[in-house]
Amino acid sequence: MRIAVIGAGIGGLAVAGGLQRAGADVTVLERAPELRQVGSGLSLFGNGFTALDALGLGDAVRALTASDSPLPQAGQRRPDGRWLARTPADAIERLGVVHRADLHRVLVRALRPGALRLGATVDAVTPDGRVHLDRALPDPLPEDRFDLVVAADGIHSRVRRSWPGDPGLHYSGYTAWRGVTTRPVDLRGAAGETWGRGLRFGIAPLADGRVYWFAVASMPAGSVVADEHGTVARLFGGWHAPIAELVAATPPEAVTRLDVHDLAGPVPTFRRGRCVLLGDAAHAMTPDLGQGANQALEDAATLTALLAGLAGAARPAERHLSAALDEYDRLRRPRTQRIARLARAVGAVGQTRGPLTGWLRDTAMRLAPDRAAARQLVDLQAWRPPVVRADATRSAS
User: Fold this and answer.
1) Which residues of the chain have pLDDT under 70?
2) How far is the C-alpha of 343 from the C-alpha of 381, rounded, in Å?
3) pTM of the predicted model, to two decimals?
4) Hey, which bits of the chain come out as E strands?
5) Which of 11, 13, 81, 212 has its CA 20 to 30 A from that of 53?
């Protein structure tokens, strides 16, 4: 089975590796001329590790998160450091924080030599599986038609935008800075998020002692900030320790900022002919639940499981392939769209700006039992990949 994966992000590389292990001939088409070690940190929850285990990558990624340090107390705090809510330890016992570049490196190494084609910009994909590049590659593809095309080309997906019903993008109302310290910083046994009025700050330790942090501020889309590092230092300088120290321990050139967008509405279908959407291309969500990468990994594990009985076939039977892709859409679309709605709602609460609404939010958080507040996080992590009967994916060659 010949499969093209568009995009060498986390979801694209994960599904490519999984389908290769299942026996498929996979080509990853990445428009960048080279892979750069960029990005900051990301959180992998229990469901993300379950997906990685299904893809055969769980142990390699766990090695990136292994630490002798005790798990810090997590939850939400006020800018003065007082706790609004504490997350029970068992709700985050499978949480691992990794540097995006390190995870990316593990996923690339899992691919067979020659599977990744750089400098390949996809102009269009037709429902019959034909891929049209904007220019010929130095080493051309042997054929432009594939049995399946997986569009994992991100939030600005060209493939999704060409489909009927593309909802477009929605600006959340806030922008986010991200950084990783260059040295260990004493977190005083606590991590998680701090919620102010239209401002939030998040802290997550990496296994090597460095700390990934993010800062969020409500502001108009496209706002120009002359000094990103200095702006974060100014906005959060009066907040509890060690926030100022974290910012100071991060070089100015290592601080990045992006306006936070998600999809404006649900995509009507994740499948069109021989093409499926995966990851942010299908369900871009705000980072307020830390589920973006985890949901992309779930997509990858689900699609791999559904195609496991077909991947090794030279020519998979059309009816079996179609049934598998329909099942992918049925399983993934409702769950990811529900989580995207929930993430947007959490972001709106977190960015509350008014004094009265802020007081009401903080009071409700203090009064709510910690176990009740954590139930949602526990439920999200309870996901399991589909179990496919051996006779459900018979193939013809």
Assistant:
1) 390-397
2) 15
3) 0.96
4) 2-6, 25-30, 41-44, 74-77, 83-87, 96-99, 116-118, 122-125, 131-133, 148-151, 169-180, 192-195, 199-205, 211-218, 256-263, 271-272, 275-277
5) 212
